[in-house]
Design goal:
Helix content is 28%, strand content 34%. It is α+β, with helices and mostly antiparallel strands. The chain has a single domain, classed as 3-Layer(aba) Sandwich (Aminopeptidase), CATH 3.40.630.30. An 8-stranded mixed beta sheet has the order 1-2-3-4-5-6-8-7, sandwiched between helices.
């Protein structure tokens, strides 16, 4: 468990399913997420995710908790082969937690922890170019904008969008 100024990052627990469903089932939360994050977000989705994440022996996915309540998620997905030591980094927050510095607190402490482990030397995060707030969070946590990936994503309305690729090195 990691404790910051505004939140804690901890393992998911089976009892998180109700709170996860409540905070994740919001189109404005899902809007700039990849389609791996379902919308609508059902109880079955919450049960599946909590069971998968809480039993993940590689410990890649974690809950963000604020005042004892699940507020979002954060994690890394390590690459393999010639990209060993590099991982995709991502996070999300429920809407009622936006604009309070919680995302920055969680992303900063989790990225520092992931890079301090010695297993990773680079974290990468790609965001929809329109998601300015997420890009700003990453910059405040030491990530650097490396590229604009043109026509990289198709958003949930079917529009083709650029992505911004950020990275943080150990």
């Amino acid at each position: 468990m990691l404790t910051g100024e505004r939140c804690r990052v901890r393992r998911y627990r089976v009892e998180d399913a109700d709170a996860l469903g409540a905070v994740a089932d919001d189109f404005l939360v899902a809007r700039w997420m990849t389609r791996a994050f379902p919308h609508p977000y059902t109880r079955a989705d919450a049960d599946f995710w909590v069971n998968a994440a809480s039993s993940d022996m590689r410990q890649r996915y974690f809950a963000i908790e604020v005042d004892g309540v699940l507020a979002g998620g954060i994690g890394v997905e390590p690459y393999g082969g010639e990209r060993s030591g590099v991982a995709a980094f991502g996070y999300w927050l429920g809407r009622r937690y936006w604009g309070r510095g919680i995302g920055t607190d969680a992303a900063r402490m989790f990225s520092e922890h992931a890079l301090a482990s010695g297993k990773l030397h680079r974290l990468e995060a790609s965001v929809f170019a329109q998601n300015v707030a997420s890009g700003r969070v990453l910059e405040k946590c030491g990530f650097v904008l490396e590229a604009r990936l043109r026509d990289y994503y198709v958003d949930r309305h079917g529009a083709i969008c650029d992505a911004l690729l950020f990275a943080r090195l150990a």
